[in-house]
Input
Amino acid sequence: MRRCRGICDPEAPLTTPGLPLSGEETTDRLLHRQPPPPDKGGLGGLNYCTDTFVAIHPDPTMSYQFDFTFVPDYAGMLAQGVAYTVGLTVVGGTLGIGIGIAGAISRLWNVRPFGELYRYYVELFRNTPFLVQLFLIFFGLPSLGIKLEAWQAAILAMVLNLGAYSTEIIRAGLQATPRGQLEAADSLAFTRWQIFLHVMLRPALRKVWPALSSQVVITMLGSSVCSQISTEELTFVANFIQSRNFRAFETYFLTTGMYFALALLIRQAMHFIGRYLIVRRPSR
Amino acid sequence: MPLVSTNRLHKFFGKNHVLRGIKLDVEEGEVVTIVGRSGSGKSTLLRTLNGLESIDDGIIEVDGAKLEVDCADAASLRALRLKVGMVFQQFNLFPHLSAGQNVMLAPQVVKGTAKNETEDIARRMLERVGLAEKFDAFPDQLSGGQQQRVAIARALAMSPKVLLCDEITSALDPELVNEVLGVVRQLASEGMTLIMVTHEMRFAREVSDKLVFMHEGKIHESGDPQAMFARPETPEFASFIGSLN
Ligand SMILES: Nc1ncnc2c1ncn2[C@@H]1O[C@H](COP(=O)(O)OP(=O)(O)OP(=O)(O)O)[C@@H](O)[C@H]1O
Ligand SMILES: [Mg+2]
Output
């Protein structure tokens, strides 16, 4: 795996002065270069961790001690991972939905040549794994002379993936425009692009917004796969931390919680955008 | 020279010969009511008049905008639609826009009129249909009668030469019919050219200058409404009025 720069300097947390924890034992534990001391049975581990958050399994044959003391030392890194994931999602979501809108109308009206191109694109991206799409872009495109940075490849893959799904979602919304509204617009001498822009688009987006929001969340969660090409998003950071402290459960438990919170946050943000951007109804 | 004139108008839906050579002339300021049994082609005729249905033969001319079978391109369709307004049975308001925005949209988008000017137009048109205070209300906050009046205002905002109304009170609760008919009556008295399809016979007799009875895709009988009701000339029209009571 490529070594990441700057934020992930593996020695940084150890040499930082003023660490909340000190002493050889603590440092060891923090690093976990050695596994925790062998279980002495019963509450034997209690001594060892009195200064930390500890949970001891009641079953004496199995007493894993939870240790989240590493969190403060990696807080900055985790925050950057979160920011990276959010960044990927915001850019991927915006461009992806943009591509979806263009694709939806091209498909609906079979705008030449885009309608046909979009059909193949949508089929391709909806019927292949995201990881493989990512690898194709990051490892495959250089063979064609297109060399992308990891973050560029990650964004491109996310945009293309979400674009394909949102094309179909938004198309369904456009298709549901009542015929009467199209006829009313026709009778008012609108051109078809004016009809699309002023009559069809907003109600269509409004109709499919919940589905679109879910797809954006799915794409955000899927961005964890971008760690495979060393994009420094949340999962990459988690993998890195875990490789330092060997606290797999704690690290990924924390990461799970963070993704969960992010998903709720993005859903909420989408809800907000849906309310105020698409409906644009004066509050009364 | 009539404002609206059609000649030899034919329309097929598949093998169904729906319009069989319609010749209709409407003078400026005239109010024409089309009646006839269900399926006689009334709606189809209205819809061909603003290009919502293509025609298979014949010619339509409205105030110089001409539509013929072999040259019904987008530009001539647009020219025709700029002269002809239409109000539908189901209102068909744009649900994402307020009443005012519904009325403003077409002048703004289609004619490129400046926004403050279209807002003026919208306020005047809504006032004309008695809904000045509903400018900011959304369609789902309005009664059917109010929605239909907004739809009339929306059509009027494009200052059409002629307004087509296809059973515009048929989807309304009985107690809301009169507020819409009142608006139509007022338009008629202001000299608006109207072509309408309606089942409100009393209203039709009262406001129409001309009654047109359609039967099997043809104009079977037409003329002054009072005279026609008093002395129907064809057995078909006689039986049609007979079936009304
Ligand atoms: N889109 C369409 N496709 C196929 N046939 C149609 C279509 N629209 C109308 N028709 C047929 O054309 C004929 C005339 O219909 P039209 O709607 O003009 O009748 P109408 O006089 O308006 O009747 P009503 O009083 O019920 O509204 C009918 O036989 C109808 O089935
Ligand atoms: Mg009809």
Observations:
- Chain B touches chain A at residues 50-52, 74, 78, 81-82, 84-86, 88, 90-96, 98, 105-106, 109-110, 136, 138, 151, 154-155, 158 (CB under 8 Å).
